[in-house]
Write a structure and sequence with these properties.
single chain, about 375 residues, alpha/beta, TIM Barrel, Arc Repressor Mutant, subunit A, 2 domains, nine-stranded mixed β-sheet, 13 helices, about 40% helix, globular
């Protein structure tokens, strides 16, 4: 069954490291509300895929900051999404991303009534000085408050995002953040090293990545998370038993999915399509033709599709099965990685060694 991803491109403030398609400008040049215009366009795009209504297994609402929408805007949003999913409560998994400063009791209750059963909450670090350096609006106290709000509303599946390799972040800082978070007992933790992408504020400011420090923090986190019962199932993701993110697993297993909104990606009928990432182009193209202009389109076949299958599969700690066509095409690359000690083979399955997961990009390069 396919997954449905819906992008909300609005933020209160753009973080220094963020390279996602998002904007902090909520008003259009003519003074109108961009959120209202966006919801209208999203409704139009959803209509274009009415044939898929009722076929979705998972929902993921990401951004941007989806929780920035007002209660009234969220009501409108969920009515649009339900036209494709049916009642979200019938989905196997329905995730909503939230930032702590924009989450309150009213919105948490609204999420529950709309059928959301999993919330991903951004922490990044527990030290306010590091959060200010990232350009975050929410401080650690805001996260603690929002977390309690979600628990009080009845949410039993919460993910927290944590970052390592931040400017000015020491191993002691990171360990403190991890211990502080683990005391709250989240069901899932996503751990990301800072990456500085061209076009971001950090890139313009000359902020540098710290891969060695990030690797040290990553290894410390892996041990602490697993000791706390959060087992690693993908390079950056750790979960308690039964709490793996089904929506993301579908990506890594080359499942089909539909993406709505600016820069959202879809994989349907063997074709990968990405919507335009420019909000204004998205709005005008949906108004003119019922679907957004494409940012890219590609149909993967043969060796390219197999290479992607390997790279996505190797992200998972379960690895990827060596089907006959994979062996035929990539036996040389696989033998080379085995000789280098970067991957291991168990029967017909290969996976990156747990002690080498931080070197995953070196493994993936073999299949590009």
């Amino acid at each position: 069954m396919p997954g449905l991803y819906v992008h909300i491109p609005f933020c209160r403030q753009k973080c220094g490291y963020c390279d996602f398609a998002s904007t902090a400008e909520l008003a259009a040049p003519d003074g109108s509300c961009r959120v209202a215009a966006y919801l209208g366009a999203l409704e139009g795009e959803a209509r274009a895929y009415a044939r898929l209504a009722g076929s979705f297994d998972t929902l993921y609402v990401g951004g941007g900051t989806p929780s920035l929408l007002s209660a009234a805007q969220l009501e409108k949003f969920f009515s649009i999404i339900n036209s494709l999913t049916g009642p979200a409560g019938k989905l196997a998994e329905a995730t909503f991303e939230a930032n702590p400063e924009s989450l309150d009791e009213e919105k948490a209750g609204l999420f529950r009534r709309a059928g959301i059963n999993r919330v991903s909450l951004g922490l990044q670090a527990a030290q306010d000085r590091l959060l200010r350096g990232l350009g975050r609006v929410a401080m650690s106290g805001d996260f603690a408050r929002a977390y309690k709000v979600l628990r009080a509303a009845g949410f039993e599946n919460i993910n927290a995002d944590l970052m390592c390799g931040l400017p000015g972040q020491s191993l002691v800082d990171f360990t403190e953040s991890l211990d502080w978070l683990l005391a709250m007992r989240p069901e899932h933790v996503s751990l990301y090293a800072l990456e500085v992408h061209e076009g971001t504020l950090f890139y313009k400011q000359g902020v540098k990545e710290a891969p060695e420090a990030a690797a040290e923090m990553y290894e410390a986190a892996a041990a602490a998370l697993e000791a706390a019962g959060l087992l690693r199932y993908e390079i950056s993701n750790f979960a308690r038993e039964g709490r793996r993110c089904r929506h993301n697993l579908n990506y890594w297993e080359q499942g089909s999915y539909l993406g709505l909104g600016p820069a959202a990606a879809s994989y349907l009928d063997g074709e990968r399509r990405t919507n335009t990432g420019d909000l204004e182009t998205y709005l005008t193209s949906v108004a003119a033709q019922g679907v957004p202009a494409a940012g890219s389109r590609e149909t993967l076949t043969g060796r390219a599709r197999l290479a992607e299958k390997i790279m996505l599969g190797l992200r998972k700690t379960d690895g990827v099965e060596l089907e006959s066509d994979i062996i035929t095409e990539f036996s040389g690359e696989i033998d080379r990685l085995l000789a280098q000690g970067l991957i291991e083979k168990n029967g017909r399955t290969i996976k990156i060694k747990s002690s080498r997961l931080y070197l995953s990009n070196a493994v993936f390069r073999e299949f590009v």
